[in-house]
Amino acid sequence: MYEENLAGKIISYVMAAGWAGYLIFFGTILASSFTNMVPNWEPYHVMNGIALIFILALDFLLRIPFQKTPTQEVKPYLLLPVKKKRIIDFLLLRSGLSLFNLFWLFLFVPFSFLTITKFFGVLGVISYLIGIWLIILINNYWYLLCRTLINERIWWILLPVAFYGGITFLLIIPDSPVSSFLIDLGDGYMEGNILYFLGTILIIAILWWINRRVISGLIYAELAKTNDSKIKHVSDYKFFERYGEVGEYMRLELKMLLRNRSCKGLLRNTFVLIIMFSCVLSFSNLYDGGFMPTFIAIYNFSVFGMIILIRTMSFEGNYLDGMMSRKGSILSLLRAKYYVYSIGEIIPFTLMIPAIIMNKLTLLGAFSWFFYTIGFIYFCNLQLVVYNKQTIPLNEKVTTRQSNGGIQIIISLCAFGVPLLLYSALNALFGETIAHITLLIIGLGFILSSPYWIRNIYQRFMKHRYENMEGFRNSRQ
C-alpha cells in the first residue's frame, strides 16, 4: 500500500511538473503575443484587463474535478473536543494554503518578469504576484461557496454562470468600466498600494465568513438528518430484463444514479456542465477558433468519466459484500457500467449538433471524440476499479470524506490530459483531419477490444478483492 501510494505520488508530481512547464511556456509566449494583439496597451494591461477573468473562470472549472471541498472531511473532526466553528475555520484555512492556489504562478511569474520589470522593477513584480495570489484565493473561496450551494440545490449553478458570464459581457463593452477597474487594480498591486491589498484581503475575509455560515448550517442539518427525500415515482426499467444479468446491473446502475442523493447530485452537475459548455460552444463567439472548441469538445465527452465513472466501486462499496456472494457478478457490473455510460455519451453528442451545423465543430471531430471517449478514456477511468478502496455514502454529501490517492489522480489526469497532448501533436504534424482519423481509429480499437480489457480489470480486482473489501468496510459511515 505504501509503495503503491509513493509511486503514484511520484508520478503525479512528475505530471504536475510537466503542466507547470506548459504554463511557463504560455507565460513566455503571452508576453509577446499581447504586444502584437493590442499594440496600444502594455502586455500587463491586456492580462489584467481582459485575460485575467478568463483565467479565473478556467481555474474555477479545473477545481470541479480536481479539488474536493474541505467540508467533506469535517465528520471525523466533529468527534474531537473542539468547537465546530474552529474545525470549519481550520478546513477553510487549509484550503487557502493549498498548493493548488500557487499553480497559476507558473504562468504569471515569467509573464511578470518579461513585462513588468522594466517599469516597476523586481519589487513591483513581487508585489504584483502577491496580488495575483490573493485574487486566486478569492476564486478559491468563491468556488467553495458555489460548490457547496450547488450540491444542495442545482439551481445555484446559475450563480457562477451569471458572475463570470456577466463580467465577460461587460468586458466586451467599449470603454468597459470593469476592464478599467481591473487594470487599475493590477497597477495598484505593482505600485504596492496598500489600499488595494487591504481591499482584496477584505473580500477574502467576507467570503470566508459567508462560507463559514453556509457550511455550518448545512453540516448541522445533514448530521441531524432533518431533510428526508421521498420517492414520488418508481420505475422498474423492465426493458432491461431481455439483456439477462448485464441488463439487471444496468437497471441497478440507473436506480443508483436516480434515487440516491449523492449520485443524483453528481448526475445533475454533469448534465449542467454538458449543457453549459454545449451552449457556449454553439451560441457564443467567445471561444471560436484556436484550441478552445477542441478543449470544450473533449471536456463535454469526458465529463461523465471524470465525475462519475472514476468513482466506480466506491458507491458499490455500500453493498459489495452481497454482490461478491454471486460468482461473476462484478464482471457483469463492469460491463453494465460500460454500456450505460457509453450510451450516455449520446447526450453530449446530441447537444453539440448545433455547433456542428454552425461550423464551430466538424462532424468528423465530433465522431472522433465520441468514439475516443468510449474507447480510450473509459479504458483509463475503469482502471480505478482495481484501486478504489473507499466507500462513498449514497445519501450524504457535505460531511462525506472523499480522498484520492496518487494512482487515482494519475489516471484522472491521463484520461483528460493525454487526448489534449495527442491531438495537439497530431494536428501540428499532420493536420486536423489526420489527427481526428487517428483518434477515431484508436477509439474504435479500444471499443472492439473492450470485452478483453474489462475482463482483465475484473481479474485484477479479484486478486485484490480482500484488501479492497476491507477498505470498503472500514470507510463505511
UniProtKB/TrEMBL annotation:
Keywords on record: Membrane, Transmembrane, Transmembrane helix
TM region(s), chain numbering: 12-34, 46-66, 87-113, 119-142, 154-173, 193-210, 265-284, 296-317, 338-357, 369-387, 407-428, 434-454
Stated name of the protein: Transmembrane protein
InterPro entries (alphabetical): DUF5687 (IPR043742)
